[in-house]
Amino acid sequence: MSAFLQIHPVDPEPRIVKQAVRTLLQGGVIVYPTDSTYALGCHIGDKAALERIRRIRQLASKHNFTLVCSDLSSLASYAQVQNSAFRILKAYTPGPYTFILKATPEVPRRLMHPKRKTIGLRVPDNKVVQAILASLGEPIMSTSLILPDEEEQLFDPYEMRLKIGKLVDLIVDAGVCGLEPTTVVDLVAGVPELIRVGKGDPDPFQ
C-alpha cells in the first residue's frame, strides 16, 4: 500500500514536500494535486516509473505526456517557443492550461509524441505542486489521474487510496480536487489551436 500523506493546500508542510521529492528521485510514482485535477507524476528521467504510469492508465504510445513546470523559464528549456507562443504562455500561465509545443533535445524521446515530436507543458497555479517543483528543481512528468474505462478523473484522495493505493508509491492528499481537466492548446504552428475545452477559459483560443 502506498504512503498517504495529508498536506495543507495553501501552506504545504516542508516535510511532506520533501517526502514527495524523495519519492520522485527514488523512482516512485506519486499522486498530487494541481489547479485542475489530481495527477500522476514521476521523475522526468525515470523510464521504469513512466512505464508504471502507462500501465495504470493503459495509455497508447501516441499519448502526449505533460511536463509540469514551475515557471516559464524552466518551460523554455524543454520546448521550442516562438515569440507569438511566448506571449500566449506569459498571459495564461500559471493556470489550468496545457500547451502542446515542439520538444527540445532536453526531453527524453519516450515522453514525446512519436511522430510530431511534441510535448505538453504547463505551469499550474497550485501551492502544493509549486512547492514540490521548487524543491525538486526540475519538471514533473505528469498525466491526468483518470483510470481505464472511466470517464471522469478521480477527485477524492480516499477513493484513490482504495483504487490505486497498491499501484503508486505516494498519495499527497490536499483535499477533494476539481473534476475539470486542463484546457489544451496546440501552439506548434505559432497560432493557437484549441484541442480540448477544460477548466481554463477557451474563448481566447476559439
Structural class: alpha/beta
How much is the average pLDDT? 91
General shape:
globular
**Helix and strand element order:** EHEEHEHEHEEHEHEEE
Reported by name, the CATH topology is DHBP synthase
CATH architecture identity? Alpha-Beta Complex
Low-confidence regions = none
- Report strand %: 15-25%
Biggest sheet architecture: 11 strands, mixed
Report the end-to-end length measured between terminal Cα atoms.
44 Å
Helix content: 25-40%
- The CATH class: Alpha Beta
Classified in CATH, the superfamily is DHBP synthase
Tally of separate helices: 6
Question: What is the number of independent domains?
Answer: 1
List keywords for this structure.
single chain; 206 residues; alpha/beta; DHBP synthase; 6 helices
